[in-house]
Amino acid sequence: MEHQNKRRAIPGRPGRHKVLYFCGLAYTLCLFSILGISMDLNNKTGAEDSGQLKEAVDFVDSSVVREAPKIALTFDDGPNAQCTGRLLDGLKKRGVKATFFLIGMNAKDNPDLVKRIYEEGHLIGNHTYHHVDITKKSDEEARKEIEDTDKVISSVTGEHVEYMRPPFGVWQKNLELEMDVMPVMWSVDPLDWTTENTDEIVNKVVTETEENDIILLHDCYESSVDAALRIVDILQKKGFEFVTADKLIME
């Protein structure tokens, strides 16, 4: 259960659709030069140049592919025997891939859910074995929390867990240097673990989410699962594309 303030996932980085727009604009200017279109708005040659200008702009507008803004949906504290399966059903129906940060002891108790998360193409991350604040543990204890969780998950997936979400959002920087694991925080947190009001959770997420945001939810509450699927429906209609968290971090 997390309770940190909102943090921007990748501050200051322009959206890819904006980059494509400016590329298209540069291409338009090249067309102006090729077609011999005057940029002097006071030039009275008028209709012919204007017609060529409109054709060039329309051509660029139709040929530039605008990619959907990407966001990531992440779930902490699972897998949960009562909730995670229903969430996976809903995500599969909607064609959405998410990121699941698993607690080691929960993964040990629910290996079939770990296997399903992996086989359905979601990203699996480490959330310590007992959901502990690792900054309050010795280095040895902190490493054990991460390593024990990695062993449980990798015994099912056959792969090392590369990403880590430290409980409560607190991280020991030296662990990042000592261990082959990368911390993943978040930028939109509706504090879903504090309420069963689904509308409240949904409203907070859909009004705050912007391109490149990483949304924090939990797959151990029925209200959070209900909210997550409604959030997907709303944000997909708004044109957002859901990707796993690594796609935003590594680009």
Structural class: alpha/beta
Largest sheet report: 5 strands, parallel
Number of helices: 10
Terminal-residue CA separation: 28 Å
Sequence of secondary-structure elements? HHEHEHHEHEHEHEHEH
* Count of β-strands: 7
CA radius of gyration: 23 Å
**Poorly predicted runs:** 2-23, 37-41
Q: Report the mean per-residue pLDDT as an integer.
A: 83
Please state roughly what percent of the residues sit in beta strands, choosing from under 5%, 5-15%, 15-25%, 25-35%, 35-45% or over 45%.
5-15%
> In one word, what is the shape?
globular
Helix content: 40-55%
What can you see in these coordinates?
This protein is an alpha/beta fold. Helix content is 48%, strand content 12%. The protein is built from 10 helices and 7 strands. Strands 1, 2, 3, 6 and 7 form a 5-stranded parallel sheet that branches. It is globular and about 60 Å long. The two termini are 28 Å apart.
Task: Describe the SSE topology.
Elements: H1 16-35, H2 47-63, E1 70-78, H3 84-94, E2 99-102, H4 104-109, H5 111-119, E3 123-126, H6 139-157, E4 163-164, H7 173-178, E5 182-183, H8 198-208, E6 214-218, H9 222-237, E7 241-243, H10 245-250
Parallel strand pairs: 1-2, 1-6, 1-7, 2-3, 4-5
Helix pairs in contact: 1-2, 3-9, 8-9
